[in-house]
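<instruction>
Derive structure tokens from the sequence
<data>
Labelled lines for chain and fold
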Amino acid sequence: MPPFEVQTAAEIFNYQEDPRNTRAVWSQEYFDDALYSQPLGFRAWALQERLLAPRVLAFGLGELFWDCSELPNACESFAGGIAGALGTTRPWKRLKLKQKTISDSEDRETLEGAWSATVEDYTNRKLTYPEKDKLLALSAVAARFGGAVDDICVAGHFWKTLPFSLAWSVLPSHRLKPSQTQARRMRNTHEEKSNKFPSWSWVSIDGPLKIPYRFPDENLIADAQKYMPSSRSDANPTGLITFASLQIKALCAEIEWNGVWKISDEETNGNITLKVTIDDSEDYPVAAALVRFLGSVEGLVLKEANLNEQLVYERIGHFSVYWPSVGESQERTLTLI
């Protein structure tokens, strides 16, 4: 429903402070319903075009919307922008508004948060050829963010955000919107067999994801040590990749399935139950690597693999557990592919 005006009664508002006798009525979901949830809002390539363009004019449901750095989130109903109509400069979270421009902040925490929000938005959008375009359709935005944070992008992750950015997870089926489909791990097709998707990166998944945000008091219990990427084009290192391995040092533990996922724990003389989200229903886990701690322990669910007769690991899921102990875990150095 588009915004509309209503007459107001004197007893509701103090007319001595504000003599207007009309008020605008509108839904907090209005921008989401009338703009973001329209067909173009679900196309992945359109996000990059929207973020990089200095000004955007969009045909929404029932009216025109426009955005630029000086006047964000404006429409025919709110020609001066929604922030001016509300009398606040930061209505983003309350109204689920999306920022049009890449943040010009010099604060790394702000920029990393903006990148996480961008990736999460991107994974909710669809690509006709995800196996080919997953990184390409966001490569220019990644290059812009990389310049802002003075960092290199490794298969969709900035190096200085590792390992905490590994704690992404797929949205479970009960949280999917009607327009969304269950996430799947992309398998290399015959046509794109030279395009390798590292299992530890969100780029290996086609579907909506939850992307982690770094918190100031967060404790990391893992360390990213080195990576070995191979981009298809040196001119566009944020684009297609042919291989990417990541070496991390982390606390690791064997996990088992017995109706629920569990880690053995000597302190409690029993087991710790894990909340596990598998990336793809075809995968089956054998081990867990713990990577971050903030009130709960989060980490990766892994399985063994062989690469040139070397033991490596593939990510197949994410886990979390609200428990001060991390069970029978040992620090190990792992190579993820």
